[in-house]
Design a protein that fits this description.
heterotrimer; A alpha/beta; B alpha+beta; C alpha/beta; A: alpha/beta; Ubiquitin-like (UB roll); Alpha-Beta Plaits; Rossmann fold; elongated; B: alpha+beta; Arc Repressor Mutant, subunit A; Glutaredoxin; four-stranded mixed sheet; 9 helices; disordered N terminus
Chain lengths: 530, 183, 424
């Protein structure tokens, strides 16, 4: 492992490491645009200039992205020449850059703003007419292109080609007529389009879903995971006044690399901002405050012990699933889940299995049953009813065959979940019991992905006033049924209990490593993250 | 920008023998895409410019995406993605031609044809571009039409050339070649 | 002086194979193929001191010695016939008038570097030269000098003629390789060098037309003979170009080291119409402007480097006194702005920005702090990019300000006396 010094500080790095990454390990910032850890380096932006001293020769200015850390190398990021070179690059880039900051979504997280502040000279001398180009032009389902703001780092071009496998974004023209473009009249089509807004260092590629919605410094941010499929990409949920305005990936080399897919990114915007949400509970045709409906349902389940079929959902956290198993296994006639197939996945990130925590269900030993089997079970005259934690599943089952007695615990929105001919004055699906559930973003817990990596998801939103969350409901049942949860209560938290139940050493939610914990036995055929 | 024709349809615009010859070109190179410039040049020679259908055909022949072909085509000065005149005139504006009166030739064209650089006559006969050094500096000032050179051009001889081309019954490239011979 | 490059330049029609062979052409190539080893050819060219005539003056034998001796797969020769440096027209003479001079050099070069395929990349505008070369290559194929059994030695060789499509930057060897591969003609970072990773990822030597035209004579008459011509560090004859405001513009074969004065006054007949020159370009646009006082400079790469300029492609352009140096500079700045590939921020922005500033000077709207600005633009881009394009656009700009500053000062805003035009 070569050892080198950067700004006088020594560090050992694996062979083949470039100077940007070597400096990063020392928390030394070398600014860059065209470089990206997930893409092959090109060395065209000339932002990452440093000085290199090699074996008695005078220091030379070089770009860090294509300079390999070798034994004995001495690097300076503060030498006068490289400081001037970086300031010069910024002056060149700002020459034709429009003064859009006041109206640009990227403000506050813009590398041009930030590097100009930290590495620029403060005043530009360009007084000629600036280049004009297309502004806020849609180039796909989600991205707007502003050619004037573009600094031609070509990350977007290389991302679409190297990562998304679709070379549909290109540089057109030559020299100072270069612009980013698609084939004339043809938008880009990709499940990874949203990442373009993240990798663009400036506001040239922005999301129409986020346009003018908020300044980034007004957003509240929570670390979470995407529940669109069972990849569980590490993400940030960014909200303002409790509304999810943006979901974007966090770097996690173990799970999703640097990116996430559009099914997740834009699906979450819908999912976490449910319009027309049913906020009250229902019992026997009448609306009730959620707490009352929960109490009534809990009492019923306790009283009719052994006669209800409980159907758990992969939308639930591992902790909720453990609690459910603990409470419902002794109480229910059958405790099961319906595995979701992987459909339409790509071999990049999206698995196509719309069941975020299915692996936890498997590892916790919950019975897997087909939808038909559950239907038959529910139809058995000896069965009192079906307790279902999944609205979509309940809807599909009741479409197939009338459910006699249904207790539904999930988020329900009239437009999204309801079949077309439903009666808006009746309970969802005509269920005897309905508890308004909570979104994953409204609680904290863990998810285990297709590769058996357990990750933490923190709370990003507040559920509606008066909501009883799933864990609270399960504890209510335990109380009614006189079940002893003392064993569980002795653990520092439910995450600890869940890990032990999975045969791993106990840790609390916050003790989990930031990039997740392997809880055993990855599924075959999973795509490698980049 | 309207899309004119997809790959298979553009192929139908060009005779089979031509498309087969283009495919053969891709086999001469260690990688198919090496034939891209020769293919684009051949496609442009047929229509006078490259239509989007031509770009798609080139993409299909070389295994590239249409966007990549578009990117490559827009890099090179000689490729035109918009229709030019039947006789696209390129007047060299670089140093030796400039010293020897290239600006007078541009002015002559403006007088005779009422067009400036980047423009095309209304009847579609001529268009004008200012081009960079043609490598015939000892014969300045030079102009070219589809890379056929006209050298030591005076305003008078330019006017004759325009007349001769306009009156020619031959197809454009033959007309230009014939005009070269009479210089 | 005995010409070995330009013997056929006076012809109306190109020299064809039959006549060429009866005059002795290809005998050297035959001897090389039949009796020599590749290493011996490389050694001879190294000893001759031949340096590349594409503008960079890199020793050709050394470039060939970088090629693998035991290649595991194809190696390529790529001929750089992209001649785009303004004021340069010598390669065109060779290709249009004496294609077999080039082709014999190609044969010998391929032998030396163990290449079985040569790509002849010719600029798209050189249609006439392309057609001549196509015929000459066909002649060689028919005669068995290209094909599967060259000179009956079982060696294979083919020359693939490939037309560019209009981009000066494709004269840069790695940009040329990208263009050959059907990409945008953008230069590649070096390392890796073409001898390691070149055309289609294979070891490649890229050589200029005129460089290769020197090779048959070197192999025929020997390195020792070659070193008697030209200068110690840059032997041989050069095809000098003289154009612009001269009586007899043309291509003149003379030893490296001939003075600019001899070329302009003796061979090209002096300034046209007996006038005076304002400036001259010594070796193509990138080499910038020199005042007439410098005419006695030897046109030799070492001497011109010491003078702060370059020999480049040896294309002299004479700017007459009646034309403005600011306007002449604008011809070049506009050219470089048009031709920068645009990859690197400093060059893309700097070439355009400096052109905009010079355009302001043309309009009499220069500003006093523009001089510092232009120096900063050059300093911020030279040595700071993937290729040496900034060095090229800085050539005319730096030399114009250094040697002709008063002309710029006359174009500062407010410099003109009222009622008199800004340019004088």
């Amino acid at each position: 492992m070569p050892e080198l010094t950067i700004d006088g500080r020594a560090i050992e790095v694996p062979a083949g490491t470039n100077l940007i990454e070597a400096a990063r390990r020392l928390a030394i910032e070398i600014p860059y645009y065209c470089y990206h850890p997930a893409l092959a380096p090109v060395g065209s932006c000339r932002m990452c200039q440093v000085e290199i001293l090699e074996g008695g020769k005078p220091p030379r200015v070089a770009i860090a992205c294509r300079a390999e850390a070798t034994q004995g190398l001495q690097v300076s990021t503060t030498g006068r020449d490289c400081v001037a070179a970086r300031a010069s690059t910024l002056e060149f880039l700002l020459a034709n850059h429009p003064l859009d900051c006041p109206i640009c979504d990227k403000a506050g997280e813009c590398d041009l703003q930030d590097f100009s502040y930290r590495h620029g000279r403060g005043a530009g001398r360009f007084t000629e007419p600036k280049r004009a180009g297309h502004k806020h032009e849609p180039i796909g389902d989600h991205i707007l292109l502003d050619q004037e703001r573009c600094i031609l780092c070509t990350r977007c071009v290389r991302f679409m080609d190297e990562y998304a496998g679709s070379p549909s974004l290109v540089v057109a023209g030559r020299g100072d007529r270069n612009v980013i473009a698609t084939f004339p009249g043809e938008p880009i089509r990709s499940n990874y389009e949203g990442n373009l807004a993240d990798i663009c260092p400036v506001g040239a590629l922005t999301l129409k879903e986020f346009r003018f919605k908020s300044r980034v410094w007004d957003l509240d941010s929570a670390e979470s995971v995407c529940t669109g499929c069972d990849r569980n990409c590490s993400i940030l949920l960014e909200t303002k006044r409790n509304r999810l305005l943006r979901a974007r990936p966090r770097v996690n080399l173990r799970v999703n690399g640097h990116f996430m897919c559009d099914v997740g990114r834009f699906g979450l915007l819908e999912h976490c901002n449910p319009a027309g949400r049913e906020e009250l509970g229902w019992t026997r045709g009448a609306r009730r405050p959620a707490a009352e409906a929960a109490a009534e349902l809990a009492a019923t389940l306790a009283a009719e012990k052994g006669r209800w079929v409980a159907l758990l959902s992969a939308r639930m956290t591992t902790e909720e699933l453990l609690l459910a198993r603990t409470v419902l296994a002794p109480l229910a006639r059958a405790l099961c889940f319906v595995p979701a197939p992987a459909e339409g996945g790509d071999d990049i990130l999206f698995t196509g299995r719309r069941a975020a925590n299915q692996r936890a269900l498997e590892l916790l030993g919950i019975d897997a049953r087909s939808a038909d089997e559950v239907s038959n079970l529910a139809a058995d005259p000896a069965v009192a009813g079906l307790l279902c934690f999944d609205a979509r599943l309940a809807r599909d089952l009741s479409a197939a065959a009338k459910l006699r007695r249904l207790a539904l615990v999930d988020v329900w929105t009239r437009p999204a979940h309801e079949p077309p001919a439903a009666d808006p004055t009746a309970a969802p699906l005509g269920a005897e019991f309905f508890l308004p559930g909570t979104l994953f973003s409204e609680k904290e817990g863990t998810f285990v992905n297709v590769g058996s990596v357990m990750q933490r998801a923190l709370r990003a939103q507040r559920p509606p006033q008066g909501t009883v969350d799933e864990a609270g409901f399960l504890r209510e049942i335990a109380a009614r049924a006189d079940l002893d949860l003392a064993e569980l209560a002795r653990k520092p938290d439910l995450t600890w209990a869940a890990l032990e139940a999975l045969g791993a050493a106990g840790r609390t939610l916050r003790q989990l490593p930031d990039d997740g914990l392997d809880v055993g036995g990855g599924a075959p055929g999973e795509a490698k993250p980049a | 920008m309207a899309v004119s024709g997809s790959g298979p349809e553009a192929a139908k615009e060009h005779p089979e023998a031509f498309v087969a010859a283009m495919r053969e070109l891709t086999r001469r190179y260690p990688a198919r895409r090496g034939a891209l410039l020769p293919i684009l040049t051949a496609l442009q020679a047929r229509r006078g410019h490259l239509a989007t259908g031509d770009l798609r055909l080139a993409a299909e022949l070389t295994g590239l995406s249409p966007a990549e072909v578009f990117s490559i085509a827009t890099f090179y000065t000689m490729y035109r993605l918009q229709p030019a005149g039947r006789f696209p005139i390129g007047v060299c504006r670089n140093i030796s031609c400039w010293v020897n009166g290239s600006e007078r030739l541009v002015a002559t064209i403006r007088d005779e044809l009422a067009i400036g650089p980047g423009e095309r006559t209304a009847d579609g006969a001529f268009s004008l571009a200012e081009v960079e050094c043609l490598g015939s500096c000892e014969n300045a000032p030079c102009l070219e039409i589809e890379s056929r050179y006209f050298e030591r051009v005076t305003p008078g001889r330019l006017r004759e050339l325009l007349r001769e081309l306009r009156e020619s019954a031959l197809d454009p490239d033959a007309a230009v070649a014939a005009a070269q011979r009479t210089r | 002086m005995e010409a070995y490059l330009s013997m056929e330049f006076g012809r109306r029609e190109p020299l064809r194979l039959a006549e060429a062979r009866s005059g002795g052409r290809y005998r050297t190539a035959q001897r090389v193929f039949e009796t020599l080893k590749p290493e011996q050819v490389v050694e001879e060219v190294k000893n001759s001191g031949l340096r590349g005539r594409g503008g960079a003056w890199f020793p050709t034998g050394i470039k060939w010695s970088f090629m693998p001796r035991e290649p595991k797969g194809p190696s390529y020769l790529v001929i750089n016939a992209d001649e785009g440096e303004p004021g340069t027209f010598k390669d065109r003479q060779i290709m249009e008038k004496d294609p077999h001079l080039l082709l014999e050099g190609i044969l010998i070069a391929c032998f030396a570097i163990r290449a079985e395929t040569a790509f002849l990349y010719i600029r798209g505008e050189y249609r006439a030269a392309h057609d001549v070369l196509a015929e000459a290559i066909a002649e060689l194929e028919q005669a068995g000098l290209l094909g599967d059994d060259v000179f009956g030695t079982r060696r294979r060789l083919r020359v693939i003629l490939h037309r560019g499509a209009g981009a000066y930057i494709c004269g840069e060897e790695t940009a040329l390789l990208n263009s050959l591969e059907g990409r945008r003609g953008e230069p590649r970072p070096k390392p890796p060098f073409p001898a390691v990773y070149g055309a289609f990822g294979r070891p490649t030597s890229v050589n200029n037309v005129e460089t290769l035209a020197n090779v048959p004579a070197i192999l025929e008459r020997g390195a020792a003979w070659y070193k008697t011509l030209g200068t110690a560090l840059a032997p041989g004859n050069l095809l000098f170009g003289v154009s612009g405001a001269v009586e007899r513009p043309g291509c003149y074969e003379l030893p490296v080291g001939t003075t600019a004065r001899e070329l302009v006054e003796k061979h090209a007949g002096g300034v046209k119409g007996g006038g005076r020159m304002r400036a001259f370009v010594p070796g193509g646009a990138s080499t910038g402007f020199l005042p007439p006082e410098k005419l006695d400079l030897a046109m030799d790469p070492e001497k011109l480097k010491k003078e702060g300029t370059m020999l480049g492609t040896g294309g002299i352009v004479v700017i007459p006194e009646e034309l403005s140096l600011v306007d002449a500079l604008r011809v070049f700045s506009r050219f470089f702005r048009h031709e920068t590939c645009g990859q690197c921020s400093p060059c893309r922005e700097g070439a355009a920005w400096s052109d905009q500033v010079i355009a302001r000077f043309q309009r009499g709207q220069g500003r006093a702090d523009d001089f510092t600005l232009l120096q900063d633009i050059m300093r911020g881009s030279r040595g700071r990019t993937i290729c040496v394009f900034p060095e090229a656009f800085a050539g005319p700009l730096a030399s114009a300000i250094q040697h002709f500053r008063p002309e710029f000062e006359r174009r500062l805003e407010g410099a003109a006396a009222p009622g008199r035009p800004a340019h004088a």
